[in-house]
Amino acid sequence: MxxxxxxIPPHYTQExxxxxxxxxxxxxxxxxxxxxxxxxxxxxxxxxYTKAGELGLLGIGFPEGYGGTEVDLFYSLIxxxxxxxxxxxxxSASLMSHTIGSPPIKxxxxxxxxxxYLPSILSGDxxxxxxxxxxxxxxDVANLKTxxxxxxDHYVVNGTKTFITSGMRADVYTVAVRTGDVGxxxxxxxxxDRDTAGFERTPLNKxxxxxxxxxxxxxxxxxxxxxxxLGTENQGFQAIMLNFNSERLWMAAGCIAASRACYxxxxxxxxxxxxxxxxxxQKQVVRHKLVQMAQRINAATAYLDQVALMVxxxxxxxxxxxxxxxxxxxxxxxxxxxxxxxMGGAGYLRGSKSERLYREVRVNAIGGGAEEIMRxxxxxxxxx
Length: 384
Prior knowledge:
Largest sheet: 4 strands, mixed
Shape: globular
CATH class of the largest domain: Mainly Alpha
CATH topology of the largest domain: Butyryl-CoA Dehydrogenase, subunit A, domain 3
C-alpha cells in the first residue's frame, strides 16, 4: 500500500506541485539521512542555512528586493509540511527560526533596517531569532518585564528571555521590551545583535527538539542604538500578535504532516511485522488504530486548508487559527502515542520517526501558545 497521502486541494497550481517536489528533494538529500545523527548531537551543520537559502526556502513570503520570493501563503505551508515529514522538529524549528524572527522586520521595519538585515538572513548567512517569552510569563505578552530605557540615541536594555529558538547561534534577535507603561501599550520591538556588550546566553536541555538550539538570554545594561527600534515606540504588541497568527498556522501544518509521516511508518511496520504467523496489520485492534489515525489526520488537513484559504483571502480568523492549532497538536499526540504503542519495543528505541515525534508532542502543544491559551482566546473571539 502507498500509505496515507496528503490531499491536494484544487487551488494548488502546477507551480505549487513543482515547488513541493523541489522541497522534497532537498529534504531527502540534505536532512532525512542525518536526522537521527543530528538529533543525538543536539545540533546540525551551520551550512544547512546557506543551502536552504541558495534554494530559496528561507526567502519564501519575503519581498524580492531583499532576496525573498513573493508568493502566496500556500508555499510557506508546503515548506512547513515537507520539513516536518522528517519528524525531527528541532531541525526545522531552528532552520526556520527566521519565520518568526524576521516578519517584524518586514512588516514594521524601516527601509534601512530591511536592507541591513533581511538579505543576509534570507541567504542563510545570518540567523534570526525572536525573543518574547520570559521566565515569569510566556503567553501573557502584555505583562513582559524586560525593560528598554531611552537615553538620547540609544536604549539601555535589562531583563531575561527564555525558551528562545536559535538562542545560542542567532546573529540578530527581535526582542520584545517594555518602553512604556504597564500593559500592551507599553511594548516595543528592538533588533539586538549577538555581539552587543552585556548580552549573554546559556543553552537549555529539552525533552524533545534536541537538534534545536534553545537558550535563555540575559540583557545586562545592553546599549542598543535607537535606530534599532522596529516600528513605533510602544506599538510593538500589534506586530507580535500578527506574528503569532502566522506561527500557529505554520505549526499546525507541520504537526499534521508529521502525524501523516508517523502513520506511514507505523503502517509499514504493521504490514511487515509478523505476529503469531500473520502480519500485525491483520489484527483488528491495529487496523482500527490506523483508521483512527487516518481519520484524525484527514480531518485536521481539511481544517488547515479551510483556514489557509481564509487567510489567503485577507481574513484574520483568529478563533479558527487557535482551534486549528489545537486540533493539529491533538492529532499529533494521538498518532505519536498510538504509533509507538503499535510498534512496541521498536517504537520505543531511538531512531524511528514515531519515537522522535513522541518526544516532541508537548513542545508543539505549548509553543506558539499553549492549548489552554488557544481555547481561551478562541472562546473570546467566538463571544462565549
